[in-house]
Write a structure and sequence with these properties.
With 257 residues, the chain is of the alpha+beta class. Helix content is 17%, strand content 32%. The longest helix has 22 residues, at 11-32. The structure holds calcium ion (CA) (2 copies).
Length: 257
């Protein structure tokens, strides 16, 4: 018998290699992506009351801490704005902007306002569904909140619009916004992608129409973020090392015939 050996790569070995690589990849993703939810409903200036018909507006600044996360991949906004008293609000009055670091997003810019309908839509805020699901702004939603009345929408028992909608995204003066105002992707919530989520986030809300007043009952953020690139590279490196290890283990030393 010859003593020389050769290396053979069998089909079962491939299965094992890919199982290990998949497991490592999934583990890397689990380690790399972090998610955090925040909801604030107390400690507001003036109890959350938004001055009627005033550009001065109202704002709330909150500090976010996501240890180990340094680069945002997605942000959704949760919000509850109601009438200052029940059924007192008028959504077409509301202008709202979220700011953080170098980014900002226009959440509402006087929904429904057009040249022929200068007061916009008349519902009394944005809030949770009757089953308690919070009102959400999400770039991935199906419809622009600015024209919610043109599609199927639900109103809760307080007269608030419910559901999940794309942010308004019209970065124009709220005193002139109308049907000709274009949306800008640069002021969608993706404006925060790539920024460090840690630090202060500011919600600004103003009421730009005479009569009918609002207050902010609560607001929050859902943030997904990843660690700094160096950590991601480390995770990838571990994956590649695991792949190499599995491949090495799967070689068979077989005697030549
Ligand atoms: Ca989103
Ligand atoms: Ca008003």
């Amino acid at each position: 018998m010859k003593t020389t050996t050769c290396l053979r790569w069998d089909g079962f070995a491939w299965v094992r290699v890919w199982m290990v690589a998949f497991w490592l990849g999934a583990s890397g993703l689990a380690v790399g992506v972090r998610g955090a939810s925040f909801w604030w409903n107390s400690g507001f200036v003036n109890g959350g009351a938004i001055p009627d018909n005033s550009a001065t507006g109202w704002q709330d600044v909150r500090s976010v801490s996501m240890p180990g996360a340094t680069s945002i991949t997605d942000v959704d906004v949760l919000i509850d704005i109601g009438g200052a008293t029940i059924f007192d609000g008028w959504n077409g009055d509301i202008y709202a902007k979220l700011s953080h670091s170098s980014g900002f997003s226009i959440l509402f810019n006087r929904v429904g306002r057009t040249t022929s309908r200068p007061n916009g839509y008349g519902q009394t805020g944005f809030g949770a569904s009757t089953s308690g699901i919070r009102f959400r702004l999400d770039d991935a939603a199906g419809t622009d909140v600015h024209y919610y009345q043109t599609v199927s929408h639900s109103i809760n028992g307080l007269g608030q619009v419910t559901g999940t909608w794309q942010p308004d995204g019209r970065d124009v003066d709220p005193t002139v916004v109308n049907e000709d105002s274009a949306r800008s992707a640069s002021v969608f919530l993706a404006a925060f992608n790539g920024l460090d989520p840690n630090g202060e986030w500011t919600l600004f809300v103003s009421d730009r129409g005479f009569a009918n007043s609002h207050k902010v009952n609560g607001w929050g953020l859902e943030i997904a973020a990843v660690p700094e690139p160096g950590v991601g590279a480390f995770v990838l490196g571990c994956g590649l090392l695991g792949f190499a290890w599995a491949r090495h283990r799967s070689w068979r030393r077989l005697p030549l015939p």
